[in-house]
Design brief:
Helix content is 28%, strand content 17%. It is α+β, with helices and mostly antiparallel strands and 193 residues long. Strands 6-3-5-4-8 form a five-stranded antiparallel β-sheet. Strands 1-2-7 form a three-stranded antiparallel β-sheet.
Amino acid sequence: MAFTVPSPRLPLDGTVQWYETGLGWATAMGPPLQLLTGSRFDVLELPADAGLALLRRVPRTGPVALAGRRMQLLVAAGGADELPGLLDWLEWGGLALDLTAIGAHGRIDAPAPPGPGGSQGATCWLRPPEPGREVEPDLPVFSGVGQHGGAPDLVRLVDAAATECHRARMVRMAAAFRGAPPGRQRNQPLAFS
């Protein structure tokens, strides 16, 4: 009779403990370890170039991760559901912004905990959460008029993110236009009169 040994539940480096015990966040095992969204936080995801411009513009955002060419901003749970309506209300709804949200039942790759030992090319924290203290009060939240509390305002964050996504898209389009070979100039992508 052959015995099988189950795979170990916890990675040896303590990453799962950092998320589950230190922060109280749900994780899903697998290569790579993933964080479950929708219960403690949601995620706004945008291109890294737009995200870096956003971080220069908005000093208080809550935790922020970089996953390849995408930036992930943690927002209060339920914020993902608000994104389409907010973009319409802010008059960004008709444009392709490459600004998405991950909410209930979603997953993101877990960034390596801050400190030495993170693998290169993996998801990493740019603004990490602080274990041992509540993260949720610092997450951007959709607040009513006059109810700001201590958290950043989700409406202002989404508006600034949409602006930076649009700017980054325009810069990429202009660079592609200038990079066309001579004699094969493309039509100007956007024109104003």
